[in-house]
Amino acid sequence: MDAPTSKPEQNAADAFLQGGASLRNASGPYFGSYGGRWMPESLIAALDEVQDTFEKAKADPEFIAQLNDLNKNYSGRPSLLTEAKRFSEHAGGARIFLKREDLNHTGSHKINNVLGQALLAKRMGKTRVIAETGAGQHGVASATAAALLGLECVVYMGAEDCRRQALNVARMQLLGATVVPVTNGSQTLKDAINDALRDWVTNVENTHYLLGTAAGAHPFPAMVRFFHEVIGEEARAQILDQTGKLPDAVCACIGGGSNAIGLFHAFLDDSSVKIYGFEAGGDGVETGRHAAAITLGRPGVLHGARSYLMQDEDGQTVESHSISAGLDYPSVGPEHSYLADIGRVSYEPITDTEAMDAFRLLCRTEGILPAIESAHALAGAIKVGQRLTEGKADPSEVSIIVNLSGRGDKDVETAAAWFDMLDEDGNVKGTTLSTRAPKGPAERGSEDQRSTEDQRSTEEQNR
Amino acid sequence: MSETTSKSAAAIDRAKAEGRAALIGYLPAGYPDVQASIDAGIALARNGADLIEIGIPYSDPVMDGPVIQAATTEAIANGFRVASVFDVVAGITAVTDAAVLVMTYWNPVMRMGVDEFSRRLAEAGGAGLITPDLIPDEAAEWLEASDKYGLDRVFLVAPSSTPERLEMTVKASRGFVYAVSIMGITGTRQAVSGSAEKLVADTHAAGAERVCVGLGVSTPEHVREIAAYADGVIVGSALVAAVRDGGVDAVGKLTKDLSAGLRRETAQA
Asked: Is there a cis peptide before residue A221, judged by omega within 30 degrees of 0?
């Protein structure tokens, strides 16, 4: 990484460390030298309209009341803050608290942002929303909000992700959305955003682009953050209530970074609180197969914002890799790049293996099945807990909040494959299907013999 | 618009002196390979194109439709490197009089360094840059480098641009202003949108001396229609499809057909 800390960042860091300036409520378009609007002129008027509508709505008590009502009576907010006592034993004995965004309607934090933006779409008189999705969480949330508010919804999803998350494709379709598989480029999240932008520039008159993360052109990073700030506001009040003090650290996973910025925002000015963002390290950052944009990227522009970006010597975007479709993005929201440069937030990579170990650990110790995205934050929290409790007589004095940004039901198939729970036909071992004769090389008999056995086992099942 | 050394303005003015609009043809660098793209560019110039727009293949071309996406994806797969664009520009300017601009998304320029990129483009004989995802608001570095190296900076205006933005964009531009005919991405269309004529008039009224129209322009009929009110006509996807289907010869033939539509029916100075 050869990005120098430029002067504005240094000034901001100095001001913050001297206790003078607030890092909260940064309005954009720039976060230090990041952010902005690196966008076709055709879309500038639409971005202005979104910005104008958002600013007015934010100041309108009626809009805020409408949003709060949906958050409470539709999403189920406030989400719980659950202490993970058995899991904590693996984090050096630090007390780990889970911010339960997995319990929101649709199963992740994504609903916070889509309800806000869908209300804005209505205010702008748009009849159609489009969205990109990686893991399908944002697509499902967008389809949900569109159904609720009577908007047409089209979701762009990389063809590769459609295969990885077929169940979520069906969910979106059941909710009335059209899912468009994207076959360009790497067929993942970044290419879905490209196609959504192409749709937007063509249909901008009646369409709002419901961007799912705190990235993209101004006003999206600041606006998406605003709709997720509720995560951190609730968590801060809840931890004060449960422990009587601020946490020592807060942790979240980073793809584009919306769940993270939502949690971090409430703590940015609490200088005693360490803040950690965990990027997808994939096979390990040294392998090149990862999605750790801040750790190993360098500043560039993609999808409308200047931010850390995984790119080659020619400025071509490098394909990212992660077991988690939701973190499989080669850039990151611009506010995170800024917070990294000024040193307020530490960003570290977590490998697929570390994330999946934490995934299983949470299942086994707390009875909670996390999204693989969130498992990156859990794996990071284990490391942070071990670090912060080192040499402490009473490790339980250390408390850490982890954003459990989503539930893992969508990831069951990926996890089953990872933990070798599937037979060679892709069926779960130990189910009735595995009563078939094993197909190991030693048992390979004639085809006739095997099909007879198959028939027999089928007959047994049918009885 | 400042005019002092603009190669693009000179090329458009030569066409105007002949009583016609200028023809601007787009081709991606390195498609299907670097030499073939030089040959296709030369064929463009020799068959009636006044200006040539050489696109840099990029991994995330959000303003491009399927034809150009497919071509640039193939160029990258064939090993295209960004610095080769200077070879393409030099290869065309060495043997033709056409003004050669580079059309590029911004990140490859930023990665090389705006000053370094500009220096090498000028050295290759390039006229300037067309920047589909760079608006003047973000272009401080490019404004400086283009002044330093005497390069044209062609920004885009769209039917959605406000009067304030039109004026600001016209002021920042040099050479000509690129008027996007329709809200959308590149690709051939049945008809050219009616919004183009109004946009050209508004852009002229905002102070632009030269306004050229692109997006969805693919036939001699489109060219004839636009040549009646614009200073130049930009054709992209149709030429790229010609390269794909018939190589250099097909490019030459299509260019000749397109240029037949340039002459204005009502004679002008």
From this structure: no
Which amino acid would we find at residue A145? Answer: A
Q: Shortest Cα distance from A62 to chain B (angstroms)?
A: 30
B156 touches A at CB < 8 Å: yes
CA–CA dist A296, A300 (Å, integer):
13
> In A168-273, at which residue ranges do the beta strands (DSSP E only) sit?
178-182, 207-209, 249-254
Task: Looking at the structure, give the CATH architecture of the domain made up of residues B7-259.
Answer: Alpha-Beta Barrel (3.20)
DSSP assigned state of A23: -
CB atoms B62 and A198 under 8 Å: yes
Query: In order of start, what are the domains of chain A with their CATH numbers?
Result: 23-32+76-108+225-412 (3.40.50.1100), 432-457 (no CATH)
Interface check B191 vs A, CB under 8 A: no
Q: Which amino acid is at A106?
A: T
pLDDT tens-digit series, residues A73-101: 999 999 999 999 999 999 999 999 999 99
Cβ-contact B6, B174 below 8 angstroms? yes
What letter does residue A436 receive in the DSSP assignment?
A: S
What HEC string does chain B produce?
CCCCCCHHHHHHHHHHHCCECEEEEEEECCCCCHHHHHHHHHHHHHCCCCEEEEECCCCCCCCCCHHHHHHHHHHHHCCCCCCHHHHHHHHHHCCCCCEEEEECCHHHHHHHCHHHHHHHHHHCCCCEEECCCCCHHHCHHHHHHHHHHCCEEECEECCCCCHHHHHHHHHHCECCEEEECCCCCCCCCCCCCCHHHHHHHHHHHCCCCCEEEECCCCCHHHHHHHHCCCCEEEECHHHHHHHHHHHHHHHHHHHHHHHCCCECCCCCC
Q: Among residues B39, B50, B53, B202, which one is catalytic?
A: B53
Q: Do the Cβ atoms of B169 and A313 come within 8 Å?
A: no
- Contact, A275 vs A246, CB < 8 A? no
* DSSP string computed for A338-381: HHHHTTSEEEEEEEHHHHHHHHHHHHHHHS--B-HHHHHHHHHH
Q: Which of B53, B99, B57 is nearest to B217 (CA)?
A: B53
Structure confidence by residue, pLDDT tens digits, A377-414: 999 999 999 999 999 999 999 999 999 999 999 899 89
Stretches where chain B sits below pLDDT 70 are 1-4, 265-269
pLDDT in tens, A215-242: 999 999 999 999 999 999 999 999 999 9
Nearest by CB to B135, which of A44, A313, A314? A44
Q: Tens digits of per-residue pLDDT, A102-133?
A: 999 999 999 999 999 999 999 999 999 999 99
Residue A85 bears catalytic tag: no
pLDDT at residue number A16 = 67
Q: What is the pLDDT of residues B134-145, one digit of tens each?
A: 999 999 999 999
- What is d(CA B126, CA B104) in angstroms, rounded to the nearest whole number? 13
A201/B183 touch (CB, cutoff 8 Å), yes or no: yes
Say how many CB pairs under 8 Å bridge A and B.
111
Number of neighbours of residue B109 by Cβ within 10 angstroms: 25
Judge whether residue A10 has pLDDT over 70: no
pLDDT band at A444 (very low <50, low <70, confident <90, very high): very low
Nearest chain B alpha carbon to A298: B111
Residue A31 DSSP SS3:
strand
**Is B63 in the A-facing interface, judged by CB distances under 8 Å?**
yes
Q: Where are the domains of chain B?
A: 7-259
Residue A419 has pLDDT above 70, yes or no: yes
Higher pLDDT, B18 or A460: B18
Query: In this predicted structure, what is the pLDDT of residue B93?
Result: 97
H/E element holding A275?
strand A274-284
